[in-house]
């Protein structure tokens, strides 16, 4: 075993393999360089990794903090950086995307192909009247057109707003309206668990609402299923692209030109439109993909299993790897279709060398058994990554042994939609790996842990709040249309000096950072962020519900699971009791949440209760509900307005 077990047998750590170090993109020197000159370090990253049409004259302008400007005066085109420059450098024949559809159909897209497709799409958008500054909603399955659509938007300077295909019509509607999108790009459907699953009807439903800014809906034909059509508004993607020229001159955009908006859950019911700009975002995506994923574009086959609808897909399927000219795999479907070895079969087929996935997937594979990956040849793998939530040491060690053949370093990468790119992570080939910890801020990143009073501390095992102490290039530039909310959410909890991440954290005795989950009313279910308030408001929008409280309860596979406590309106309480309709009602409520937000938000458990625990000022004490949901002894109830409520809840649940 390659682990260093001399310190403690129950606590293996993994020093870098010298052979890995010898070829690694990341170096120990980077920490020293970044510490010595923070801005100089980031200026060098930007100039080394990105092609600028106009060089920048100031690296960072923080004079209007917390509103940052990076690479001031610089001009670039993100799509040119992700596509054209690789073709110009003679790498047009390199595969950009090995696409694997769920039914088994495949497409091989080279950088030259990508250049033609993106150019056609940019011309097609232009012909529809989409110009610089117009916003475009993208609601697509995991197919190459999603990448092409995003890059076409980037090319013409139209910020895209990708909405995860699993979100409902309601959720899509809110996001389209918030960003006043002019166009929606969607598909007839995608393949999911062996069957076509329609998407376009959700777009129709989203746009049915009275007023909309959407002028055209562009539809990719993926499944060929019957699709409702709105003459005059709907257009086939293929018709538009067939009519468009294959050449398109990419214009440079300002470094701070908005690249995209991506909605994420916050502590209130209204999702936040996190927006990112061009130069800093692209720089940090390219840098982290190079030194953390250790991508060597000439030889690696990289696979990030995220959906393009999340930030991981934006940064580590589209912008990072493509800016670096990497070859990657893109897979449309679910890991168990048509069998539970589908991912390992894909790794064997394409000789994948780098795999980046989420702990929830690893834990699911653990449940399915290690004999499944054992059937495939995965000797091509040389690096594994994890993202989205803490990876427990047990899952980390399983991942290393059964997927990584006991030889691949694992990088546990902490970051957020807001941070745009990886912030805390080991550097493979440099860092001695500590299973379960994201370990150290990357070179160029500064983090601290604060106590309740906002004082930084370094004592091991004490729990505090993670903050970031210096601006970084791929930081969010704000919340779309709501600068005040940006300040309030991120830059006020501990004053304007600290970016408040919303995560609990601690150090261990070696100074490694351990992320301990959210400290706010945000849940993390299978690496997806959901807000308790958003699900509560979905529940109370159901006519039978009077009140609802939602908590994230720990769950072995999904990290956290949504558990809802619901009070029914009087007339329905009797209904539920007398006719034993409780079960149907729970199903009805779960489906209602799926309709309002999306299937990912469906509560795992709904408990019908007669009262909720509240303080005298009327605030729901979620902590106590969490105790119930996690099957613990209920904690301190002395601040409850009515201290008998918890007994009633527990009795009602048959405890
Ligand atoms: C939240 C951000 C980063 C892209 C995917 C999620 C949690 C993320 C880790 C990690 C512990 C993690 C945090 C964070 N998180 N990565 N490696 N270890 N926690 O992006 O939806 O914006 O969620 O995910 O709680 O705040 P997101």
UniProtKB/TrEMBL annotation:
Alphabetically sorted, this entry's keywords are: Acetylation, ATP-binding, Ligase, Magnesium, Metal-binding, Nucleotide-binding
Q: What is the E.C. number?
A: 6.2.1.1
Which residues does the annotation say bind CoA? 192-195, 312, 526
Q: How is it modified after translation?
A: Acetylated. Deacetylation by the SIR2-homolog deacetylase activates the enzyme.
Residues binding ATP are 388-390, 412-417, 503, 518, 529
Q: Where is the AMP-dependent synthetase/ligase domain?
A: 89-480
The protein's annotated catalytic reaction(s) are:
acetate + ATP + CoA = acetyl-CoA + AMP + diphosphate
Q: Which residues carry this modification: N6-acetyllysine?
A: 619
InterPro entries per the UniProt record, alphabetical: Ac_CoA_lig (IPR011904), ACAS_N (IPR032387), AMP-bd_C (IPR025110), AMP-bd_C_sf (IPR045851), AMP-binding_CS (IPR020845), AMP-dep_synth/lig_dom (IPR000873), ANL_N_sf (IPR042099)
Q: Which segments constitute the AMP-binding enzyme C-terminal domain? A: 534-619
Q: What does this protein do?
A: Catalyzes the conversion of acetate into acetyl-CoA (AcCoA), an essential intermediate at the junction of anabolic and catabolic pathways. AcsA undergoes a two-step reaction. In the first half reaction, AcsA combines acetate with ATP to form acetyl-adenylate (AcAMP) intermediate. In the second half reaction, it can then transfer the acetyl group from AcAMP to the sulfhydryl group of CoA, forming the product AcCoA.
Q: Which family does it belong to?
A: Belongs to the ATP-dependent AMP-binding enzyme family.
**What's this protein's name?**
Acetyl-coenzyme A synthetase
* Top-level taxonomy: Bacteria, Bacillati, Actinomycetota, Actinomycetes, Micrococcales
